[in-house]
Amino acid sequence: MGPTTTGGMPKGGDEWMMRVEERYRAGDLDDVNIEALRKLRRASREIPLDSLLGEIRCPVLVVTGDQGDVLLGVEYRERYQRALRDVRIVTLAGAGHMLRVDGRADVFEREIGRFLATAVDGRPN
């Protein structure tokens, strides 16, 4: 099944949440809805990710960072590549999991634009 907890989220997710909580307490993430993140973290433990991936029939874009992304590590990118029928995986240099916080929002938005343009007209951008 891979490196998951009881649900579909990676084991490193707890570590990631602790780091987010620390940054929030330090005032680095004052525009983040920390309570929503806490609820999402609790709910995500119940998602049977492995059994659902093969059911996805539309193109999928996975954007992750190369700097210690504890939620989407290399093993997850490889797993998505195998399990999803039509997936494009983009790994951004110099970013972790929270692309906006890591200052990579512009690159993230550009990748989404390229992906959507391809999905709409079928041509790579």
Can you offer a commentary on this structure?
There is one protein chain. This protein is mostly helical. It has one domain: Alpha/Beta hydrolase fold, catalytic domain (Rossmann fold, 3-Layer(aba) Sandwich). Helix content is 46%, strand content 10%. The protein has a two-stranded parallel sheet with strand order 1-2. The longest helix is centred in the last third of the chain and has 17 residues. The chain is globular and about 45 Å long. It starts with 11 loop residues before the first helix and ends with a helix. 11% of the residues are buried. The N terminus is likely disordered.
How is the topology of this model organized?
Blueprint: H1 12-25, H2 34-44, H3 49-53, E1 60-65, H4 74-83, E2 87-92, H5 105-121
Parallel strand pairs: 1-2
Helix pairs in contact: 1-2
Could you name the CATH class? Alpha Beta
Order of helices and strands: HHHEHEH
- Tell me the CATH topology: Rossmann fold
Largest sheet: 2 strands, parallel
Radius of gyration (Å): 15 Å
Number of domains: 1
* Low-confidence region ranges: 1-7
Instruction: Look at the helices and sheets and give the structural class.
Output: mainly alpha
CATH architecture: 3-Layer(aba) Sandwich
Strand content: 5-15%
Q: Look at the structure and give the mean pLDDT.
A: 77
Please report the total strand number as a whole number: 2
Strand order in the sheet with the most strands: 1-2
Share in helix:
40-55%
Number of helices: 5
Tertiary shape: globular
CATH superfamily: Alpha/Beta hydrolase fold, catalytic domain
Distance between termini?
A: 35 Å
